[in-house]
Amino acid sequence: MGANSHAEQQARLRRRHRVGLATVLVVALGPTVCCQRESATTQGSDVEAAVVAEAARARIDDDWTGRPAGVRFDPVYVFDHYGRARGFGLVEIPDGARAMLPETKTAIERALDPAEVIWVERVGEVASGDRTTELPESTGAVLKIAPPRWADGSAYVTIELYCGPVCGVGGTARLESGQDGWEVVGEEGAGFTA
């Protein structure tokens, strides 16, 4: 066997290994995790704004188990930077996170109307020392939002809502585009309710 045939054989084995590794990742992790690009900018800022606003509206309006009866959220504190989905519906806002576009912020304000939306940059701007579990009829909520992901014509937005020491909900909303715009059609993956 000559040097060329040995080098060619090694190159073929490396190509086969790369293809096999990609196949294993797609099968084990799913195509969305392995190979799907998460940038919302490929969808256009108007689509991103509509998707994020509808997901925020649905999270605030959702009648989840832990929400005290008759409580409406006003004001709503919203982080003005996208966070990173950590799993189980939790979102962290890392340093250097991507800022929301002005059209996204405007769309969120319209979707949450009549609640007052207060834009914040840091946790310290909304954290309080009040540890009471009794919530007044109108109480504030904090939203942390991860940027939308796109797969198979659907959008996925992870949003964490915090409304007190024993009040919160988080999860990933699946949205689809219909005649009346984007709407939440379900939840994907694990979430939490407190």
Shape: globular
Strand count: 9
Mean pLDDT: 77
| Computed Rg | 21 Å
Q: H/E series, N to C?
A: HHHEEEHEEEEEE
* Gap from first CA to last CA: 68 Å
Tally of contiguous helical segments:
4
Structural class designation: alpha+beta
Written description of the protein model:
The chain is an alpha+beta fold. It is built from four helices and nine strands. The strands form two sheets. Strands 1, 4, 5, 6, 7, 8 and 9 form a seven-stranded mixed sheet that branches. The chain has a two-stranded antiparallel sheet with strand order 2-3. α3 packs parallel to α4. The chain starts with a helix and ends with a strand. Residues 12-41 and 129-136 have low confidence and may be disordered.
Summarize the structure.
By secondary structure, the chain is α+β, with helices and mostly antiparallel strands. The chain has helices at 3-29, 31-34, 45-61, 102-112, and strands at 72-79, 84-87, 90-92, 117-120, 138-145, 149-151, 154-164, 167-178, 181-193. Strands 1, 4, 5, 6, 7, 8 and 9 form a 7-stranded mixed sheet that branches.
Summary tags:
globular; 194 residues; 34% strand; seven-stranded mixed β-sheet; alpha+beta
Helix and strand arrangement:
Layout: H1 3-29, H2 31-34, H3 45-61, E1 72-79, E2 84-87, E3 90-92, H4 102-112, E4 117-120, E5 138-145, E6 149-151, E7 154-164, E8 167-178, E9 181-193
Parallel strand pairs: 1-4, 1-5
Antiparallel strand pairs: 2-3, 5-7, 6-7, 7-8, 8-9
Helix pairs in contact: 3-4
